[in-house]
Specification:
The structure holds two protein chains of two kinds. Chain A has an eight-stranded mixed β-sheet with strand order 6-7-8-3-9-10-12-11, sandwiched between helices. In chain A, strands 2-1-4-5 form a four-stranded antiparallel β-sheet. Chain A has two domains: 194 residues, P-loop containing nucleotide triphosphate hydrolases (Rossmann fold), CATH 3.40.50; 71 residues, no CATH class. Chain A starts with 8 loop residues before the first helix and ends in a 13-residue tail after the last strand. Chain A is globular, with a radius of gyration of 21 Å. By secondary structure, chain A is of the alpha/beta class. Chain B is mostly helical. Chain B has a domain of 191 residues: MetI-like fold (Orthogonal Bundle), CATH 1.10.3720. Chain B is built from 13 helices and no strands. The mean pLDDT of chain B is 83. Classes of the chains: A alpha/beta, B mainly alpha. The interface between A and B is medium-sized, with 33 and 24 residues.
């Protein structure tokens, strides 16, 4: 397992061109009076070939962000504003939110695939693994013959370390770890540019988590796709991702390289998250956790959403919402906290 | 395969128990067919004719219950269900052979049609939840809440009496000789329209409602979301992912309803005086025709058992999770 400090690609991806650009994305659940805002003006850029970690507590909007980007939000979720731009390899950027249903169908999985949260329920229980691996090929590669599709499915299974003779198995005949690996194989079937992983290992035991993550790292090095890795386990991200964005109450509160977040978190919430999980490597830290509970989306506190739980809250925190802004001279690092606002005190 | 044999053995045992009960119940009831005939002719039978009737019905021999039981099985094996006394001296098996095809054709076809139409509408209504199709639900529920015989009577009074478009009763034009010719078949079809449509109308709502609700439930499953994310064509997601899983309870419901084709048609056939097995049973009950009732019940029992077996097998075929390993 490589740490961010030793990964050679880290320096490359810092300057790599963007593959997915999200700007001021807003998502509401419900419409009109009862609407609840789940995402506030989220800006996020995924660069080609990088692993971007997305961390935060339950209800912070991580999964909503993933679903909004692929336009999979089911009602009552509505995208109320913002922009999602996808940059195809060697082509003009396309506006994902403006796609017609046909364009969207062709775009999904071909460019962005998703490994979903529930490893257990992502596979249809009444179809074999073969059917579910080949139907995506059938939909996106109409030129492929039946035997070619099955051959590709066998290849995909061996890619994730499952014996190809499990093709004719039904999902209930596989273990949880195997099912999740089948899902990963499926996500890679069309060799997409971006793979979104929504808590892919949460339902698995620790040993299986490690195995699958190691496999992912290897596959990414081989195939060179970008990853958005969503989890609440920040220690996993520190080890595994190039950059980390931390979400709280539907906003991104801090964004920085994995090593920087680990060494020097600038937002008190990031600091709290880091002290909520035991670090996988390095010196021991004291586990403190974060007092209080995540904010109720229906009754967001005024000002910074984190201020009621923040140990360092001071004068402007409960009145004004801090903007996500670069920290110091480092353009790759930004944080939304009044503590880091010495240079911007004049802003409203 | 082992599963199939196990089920088969279970249903054979159940069939044996049902047939035995079918044998015992009439013998536990007071009276016998001769006495009921005496009552029917209000004492106009001479003692001689009573004696000959007893000989005819085999009641003169003093046989033990066990002997009778063995005879009963032996007769069953030969397809001999005794003589009906409503249609005396026609054998029960012949009476049923005449009426069963009517029931099977009318109710079998309409059950299939209402299942297909209802499930189809249910798939679309569940998939496009909130569309105009949802407006159908209260209407179909209302129709299915109407007692069947009343719906039938309304249909007769409207379409056979008020506007005499369709015949009010019978299975075919009695001036025709039953046979497989165009004139007879079209007459039979014409007579089947009114009962057929009312059966479809009243049975369809259940299928629509069941299928729609299952579709709504299944549509929120993760694997349907995955299928959407995979960019599969919408038809494929709708049928192969959502409907394929949602249909399971409806299919077993359908298999069970096949069992009630034979037994559950009493009202239809009474209302429309349709020459099916239900109407025969109705006549048999009125005339205390025990052999006939026994025969009809036997057929009903066997049909329900066969339908249950079919439901079991269909489920195994459709849902791999119910298959046992090895």
């Amino acid at each position: 397992m490589s740490t961010p400090e030793t990964t050679p690609v880290t320096t490359d991806v810092a300057t790599a061109p963007p593959v997915l650009e999200i700007s001021s994305l807003c998502v509401d659940y419900g419409v009109g009076q009862g609407a609840v805002r789940a995402l506030h003006d989220v800006d996020l850029t995924l660069r080609r070939g990088e692993v971007l970690g997305l961390a935060g507590e339950s209800g912070s909007g991580k999964s909503t962000l993933a679903y909004a980007v692929t336009r999979l939000l089911s009602p009552p979720g509505v995208i109320t504003g913002g922009d999602v731009r996808y940059h195809p390899r060697g082509g003009e950027p396309v506006d994902v939110l403006a796609m017609t249903p046909q364009e969207l169908r062709a775009f999904r999985w071909q460019e962005i695939s998703i490994v979903f949260q529930g490893a257990m329920n992502s596979l249809n229980p009444v179809h074999t693994v073969r059917t579910q691996l080949t139907d995506v090929l059938k939909a996106h590669r109409p030129g492929m013959s039946r035997t070619e599709r099955v051959e590709r499915a066998r290849e995909l299974l061996s890619l994730v370390g499952i014996s190809p003779d499990r093709l004719s198995a039904y999902p209930h005949q596989l273990s949880g770890g195997m099912r999740q690996r089948v899902m990963i194989a499926m996500a890679l079937a069309l060799e997409p540019e971006v793979v979104i992983m929504d808590e892919p290992t949460t339902a698995l035991d620790v040993v299986m988590q490690r195995q699958i993550l190691r496999q992912l790292v290897r596959l990414r090095e081989e195939l060179g796709f970008s990853v958005v890795f969503i989890t609440h386990d920040i220690s996993l991200l520190i080890e595994f991702s190039d950059r980390i964005a931390i979400m709280y109450g539907g906003r991104i509160v801090e964004q920085a390289g994995a090593a920087e977040i680990y060494r020097d978190p600038r937002h008190p919430y990031s600091d709290g998250l880091l002290h909520s999980f035991p670090a996988l490597r390095g010196p021991r830290r004291e586990l403190t956790g974060i007092p209080g509970s995540p904010p109720d989306l229906k009754a967001m506190p005024p000002g910074c959403a984190f201020h009621p739980r923040c140990p360092k809250a001071f004068d402007p925190c409960d009145r004004r919402v801090p903007r996500l802004a670069p920290v110091g001279t480092d353009t790759d690092r930004s944080v939304a906290c009044w503590l880091n606002d010495d240079r911007r005190s004049g802003e409203a | 395969m082992k599963f199939v044999l196990q089920r088969l053995a279970f249903y054979l045992l159940t069939a044996w128990a049902a047939i035995t009960i079918n044998f015992l119940i009439p013998r536990l009831m007071p009276g016998d067919p001769v006495q009921s005939l005496i009552a029917r002719y209000q004492g106009q039978l001479s003692s001689k004719s009573i004696a000959s009737l007893e000989t005819l019905f085999g009641l003169d021999q003093d046989r033990s219950l066990w002997q009778q039981y063995l005879d009963y099985w032996a007769n069953l094996a030969r397809g001999d269900l005794g003589l009906s006394f409503t249609f005396f001296p026609t054998p029960v098996s012949e009476v049923m052979a005449q009426s069963l095809p009517w029931t099977l054709a009318l109710v079998g076809t309409t059950t299939l049609i209402s299942f297909l139409i209802g499930t189809g509408i249910g798939i679309f209504a569940g998939w496009r939840r909130g569309s105009w199709l949802d407006g159908l639900l209260p209407v179909t529920t209302f129709i299915s809440a109407i007692p069947y015989f009343w719906l039938g009577l309304i249909a007769i009074s409207l379409f056979a009496v008020q506007w005499p478009i369709f015949p009010a009763a019978g299975g075919y034009d009695t001036s025709l000789v039953p046979g497989l010719d165009a004139a007879f078949l079209s007459s039979a079809l014409y007579h089947a329209v009114l009962p057929g449509v009312t059966i479809v109308l009243s049975a369809m709502a259940g299928w629509i409602l069941g299928m729609r609700n299952m579709m709504v439930t299944v549509s929120s499953e993760d694997y349907v979301m995955v299928a959407q994310a995979k960019g599969l064509p919408e038809r494929r997601v709708m049928f192969s992912y959502a409907a394929r899983n949602a249909i399971l309870p409806n299919v077993s419901g359908f298999a069970l309803s096949l069992g009630f084709i034979v037994g559950g048609t009493l009202l239809v056939e009474m209302v429309f005086s349709y020459p099916g097995i239900g109407y025969v049973l109705f006549q048999g009950v009125n005339a205390k025709d025990y052999p006939l009732m026994q025969g009809v019940f036997l057929i009903i029992t066997l049909a329900v058992l066969a339908a249950n077996l079919l439901a079991d097998l269909l489920y195994v075929l459709l849902d791999p999770r119910t298959r046992k390993e090895g």
